[in-house]
Amino acid sequence: MDLFDDTPQADDPEGNMPEFTVGELSGAVKKAIEGGFGHVRVRGEVGRVSRPASGHLYLDLKDDRAVLASIIWKGQAAKLAHLPEEGMEVIATGRLTTFPGQSRYQMVIEDIRPAGAGALMAMLEKRRAALAEEGLFAAERKQAIPYLPGIIGVVTSPSGAVIRDILHRLRDRFPSKVLVWPVAVQGQKSAAEVSAAIAGFNALTPGGALPRPDLIIVARGGGSLEDLWGFNEEVVVRAAAASAIPLISAVGHETDTTLIDYVSDIRAPTPTAAAEMAVPVRLELLGAVDQAGGRLRRALSEGVTRRGQRVRDLGRALPKAERLLEGPRQRLDALAARLPNALRAATSVKKERLAKQVLSPALIRRTVAEERRRLAAVRLTPDVMQTRFATLSDRVAGLDRLRETLGYAATLQRGYAVVRGGDGAVVTDVAGAKAAKSLEVQFADGRMNVTKA
Fold this sequence. Notes:
- By secondary structure, the protein is α/β, with parallel strands linked by helices.
- Helices cover 46% and strands 19% of the residues.
- The strands form three sheets. The protein has a five-stranded mixed beta barrel. A five-stranded parallel sheet has the order 7-6-8-9-10, sandwiched between helices.
């Protein structure tokens, strides 16, 4: 009996229709669909796309009349060269099945690819616009390329002609240290390996055992749009944008453009041109250094010559040294002539000032008497008084010697005499001597009265 034969039987009021459980019916539908559509190719536009934590990829294929729910299992999704994006026109290959849990049918996709280069270009333009809107291609994000990098990191295939061209060009221009990070430059692994290489170079420690490069070159030879697609992947673009090391992109030929070219700090038309941009020509640099050294030497020589001439010109404007010294010399001669008289006058003034400061015997006696009265008013022990009197006696003796030394007594020993009038005042001139009624002359050994005639 056909499961779907719904012709009623004549002798059965209900048509003798068999009864099925829901599971039996769903299984029969599943068997019918999978048997009739075991392998199909579907062309349509990608609608809703979601990728949960399980890693499976759920999407809708649609046209203007219908929607086909589809699924790509996790293992199969990892093998796809191009992951579907919403709005992209694709051709999907797989099989139809049912999902009894929701009473719907769906397509299990085994392979999916853009429907021609036009679909790829449309997807590429859409991705480029989205990344540009984030500001990843902005000019202010670009870094300056170092003039002479010490270490250059190259991200490319280690076995292709690209790395040989780069090394050869660097050797010709300016031999430099090169670190090569081998990657797949096309295929499913390309985007992941290239982004990991850029991040790996940035993670190196400057000056470490494996030093961090000063410049990164991402290079690949020419190819079709599908061959270069790995450099259009978002993961590569974001890795290049996050690079703290300046980056040169050299992917494909001059006419090939990938998204990494927009985000890189500078784009080279070919890998060989990237090597030329990375370093200067050593011989030209040496020549430029020699020329700069020559200009520096000439500038120094000319500067010294000009300054010497300036000094000589200023020297001619200055007066002669002899003329500058004429006035000071005259002042020196005048001061030298006045010096002896000034010294004698200063000596005389000092003598008079010292004579006034000499202690007289009466003053000494008065000082001793005052000291004795002061000591008598203070209760002192015999030992202390004896020590105090001894000290005072020594002081008095010293003052007396000072008086004898600095006073006029020592002067009298040298033949001088002191003349006093009748009133005891010292007579210092002839007029005073004539006016005095009597005179007294003091010599070193005594005094004598002189009678006026």
